[in-house]
Fold these 2 entries.
Entry 1:
Amino acid sequence: MKSTILRTVLLAFSILGISLLHYLTPLNLHYLHDIFQRFYYLPIILAALWFGFRGGLLCSLTVSVVYAPHILFQWGGGLTLEMEKYLEIVMYNVVGGVTGLLAQRERARSSELQKTAQGLEESYNKLQTQSERIMTIEEQLRRAERLSTLGEMAAVLAHEIRNPLGSIRGTAEILRDDYQPGDPKHEFIEIQIKETERLNRVVEEFLRMARPQPTEMVRCSLREELETIVTLTTNDAKARKIKLSLEPPAGDLFVSADGEKLRQAFLNIVINALQATPEGGSVTIATRQADGNHEIRFSDSGPGIEASALARVFEPFFTTKPDGTGLGLAITKKIIEAHGGTLEVESQTGTGTTVIVRLPVI
Ligand SMILES: Nc1ncnc2c1ncn2[C@@H]1O[C@H](COP(=O)(O)OP(=O)(O)OP(=O)(O)O)[C@@H](O)[C@H]1O
Ligand SMILES: [Mg+2]
């Protein structure tokens, strides 16, 4: 804005100056007038370059208007005598217009080029962020690969631990027979055997999880599977004085599943619920259909799970029990997902826990 005013003032002054030269120079110095006449091209071309077609033409018209009286009144204005001067006025306007047009077109082109350059830069930036993303994903993949190798090594390790564990347990049993029950050494060896058993359980569970056996999918009755689970755990529930109930599903429900695996998953959930529920509490199993899934809800009236623990219940080896392995829910999740289903735990401290299994309807 400021430069526009400055440029306009500059043009006005130069036109005024050149015109004054014309008006004030005596006519007999006609060779000077010939020179001054050409000076007008300077402001006209500048105006065309700065302001385009309209600016160039406006400037040349101003020059024409300012210059014309000089021809008409000082030179006499004879058409044939002063023809050259009239032609110069025509030239002013032609130069103003054409230069303005060209300058304008040039400017449009350069702004277009600028826009293209901007677009290119944006594409380049996008490309760069994308390639960065690819690099991070690659890094993640490499890490996953390392982890899976670690997992395989852990499985080998677990396998190697099992054999010496068997010998320790065997020899401990032989030693135990040397002492009478009640003897402190008998107790110690008992502890030793119990702890070996626990270690063995951890290793076995781990191996079972690490080596996914092929699943054999057949048509299974959900009702039958759940009834089997209730039968298997009724005694345990009675001993704990917990009311275990299966709300009979409406009609028979079928899923495509490996029955043994499915029972293992359900059993893990029910055992957790029984372990969490205090005397006099209840564990309820209910089923319903929703969104093409069978939904099986295992609800207990236990203490619930704290938010920080809730986020970790599916983590292998996460346990809050002194003799737990922390593999129950990790295995359960793996089994349910292998059946195309999902496993979810809803819990609030004080109100109990609900484990929800969803399996696709067939
Ligand atoms: N119904 C539940 N109520 C309260 N806490 C639960 C319940 N189910 C699971 N949890 C919590 O989740 C943890 C992990 O459960 P998970 O079954 O994986 O292992 P675990 O029961 O501790 O060990 P394991 O199943 O090998 O005996 C439990 O230690 C417990 O803190
Ligand atoms: Mg468990």
Entry 2:
Amino acid sequence: MPLTQPPRDCPLCPRLVAFRHEAQRLHPDWHNNPVPYWGDEAAALIVIGLAPGMKGANRTGRPFTGDYAGDLLYATLKKVGLATGEYRQTPSDGLELHNTLIANAVACVPPENKPTPAEQKTCRQFLTRRLGEQKPLAYLALGRIAHDSLLTALGEKKSANPFAHGAEHALSGGARLFDSYHCSRYNTNTGVLTTEMFEDVVGRAAAYISRPALSLPS
Ligand code: SF4
């Protein structure tokens, strides 16, 4: 049966496999493997990031856990009611997601946080199968690569749904896509993304999936 999550020792991207193996050699106590999706399996909102950060999800094995991007993402999810508990940068912190699943466009840590187009395409097969099993009400794409990879996985037209921070797209499949700049330290340090900008988008996505009149697309 085709996999909806990459296997732990996925061999499909030679450059990323070599990078993982080097990380395993340098940091044998780290996760250093594809990072699985995390959250509510029947979520109405799916958050799509770019790829694991070297000292974040690649180290801890949970998406957005262990580096700054997670500090902002989880604080915001808590603020809008999509997470409860304390986020302490470790998978054992007891944090829980509600109606929310987090995935990445690419499951392995890439050098300099830059997966190649070929790596994005290769890893998309898992995301495509996973999304084929689920009919969420909404997606939240963190950055252009996540946005584009998600649209391709869903068979949606990029020309009809261009990426822009704060944009909302009514997808032909029935779900709504919310766009945000990625919540990375680089983007917040440079002022590209502020906490207020991020909270606005995540808050709109949370409000959208909470509207009582909505039902799952058929
Ligand atoms: S990025 Fe995805 S497809 Fe490539 S090696 Fe990692 S898990 Fe496999």
